[in-house]
Amino acid sequence: MQFALLAALVTAAAAAIADHRTGEISNWITLPPAIGAPLLYGVLLGPEQAVRSVSSLLLCGSVPCLLFYRGAMGGGDVKLLATLGAVTGSDLLTGLEIQLVSFLVAALTASVVLTWRGMLLSTLLRAGRSALRRVLRRPDTSPRPELPFTSLRLGAPVFLGTAAVVLPALLRNAVFR
User: Fold this and answer.
1) Closest CA to 4 of 102, 92, 106
2) CB atoms within 10 A of CB 73
3) pLDDT per residue over 54-97, tens digit each?
4) What letter would DSSP give residue 88?
5) Tens digit of each residue's pLDDT (9 = 90 or more) over 112-167
6) Mean of the per-residue pLDDT values for the chain?
7) Rounded Cα distance, 72 and 48, in Å
8) Which of 1, 58, 157, 174 is most buried as measured by Cβ atoms within 10 A of its Cβ?
9) Confidence class of residue 28 from pLDDT cuts 50, 70 and 90?
10) How far is CA 173 from CA 32, 60, 101, 116, 170, in A?
11) What confidence score (pLDDT) does residue 147 get?
């Protein structure tokens, strides 16, 4: 399992660097581990672990895939989160934990960026009004001002989320060996 955690950390680091430099997470970073992890699990640990790896890939890719189709996330981010699920697949929940922590880091990053630009309060109020209208099932008749769109690259938040989940486990295993 330590090798899988280290592989997840290296994959996330490579994706973060590529995302920072080019704004894209390319297939050569995500596809080899996504395909190789289930194969390695199957050869080294048996078919049950290969199935767990594929299951984790599908589980970890499901919510990001929905976000991608809604236009809320890029395809490279989807592939990266699914790949991290496959790599950490012997433990089905590690990939989901990485995803959750990564989304929390991204939300914190977005809050900092909006605060820096002086847009946090207005964004939160607008989101609250929109949510309230949906709950009350009232149509939105207010004029909407044209707002600047800000995208957030997820490579670095996914790396930080991966590091936050993986490093304590790696250190714990190294210390108690």
Assistant:
1) 92
2) 20
3) 999 999 999 999 999 988 899 999 999 999 999 998 788 999 99
4) T
5) 998 998 888 988 888 888 888 888 877 766 666 666 666 789 999 999 999 999 99
6) 90
7) 34
8) 157
9) very high
10) 26, 24, 21, 40, 5
11) 61
Instruction: Classify the phi-psi angles of 46: left when phi > 0, otherwise alpha if psi is within -120 to 50, otherwise beta.
Output: left
Q: How many CA within 13 A on the CB side of residue 154?
A: 26
Instruction: Enter the DSSP assignment of 73.
Output: S
Q: How confident is the model at residue 173 (pLDDT cuts 50, 70, 90)?
A: confident
- How far apart are the C-alpha atoms of 129 and 25, rounded to whole Å? 35
Q: Assign residue 109 a region: left if phi > 0, alpha if psi is -120 to 50, beta otherwise?
A: alpha
Q: How many CB atoms lie within 10 A of CB 11?
A: 25
Which amino acid, 115?
T
Contact, 60 vs 27, CB < 8 A? no
Cα 75 to Cα 25, 63, 163, 168, distances in angstroms: 8, 12, 22, 29
Q: Which helix (H) or strand (E) holds 44?
A: helix 27-45
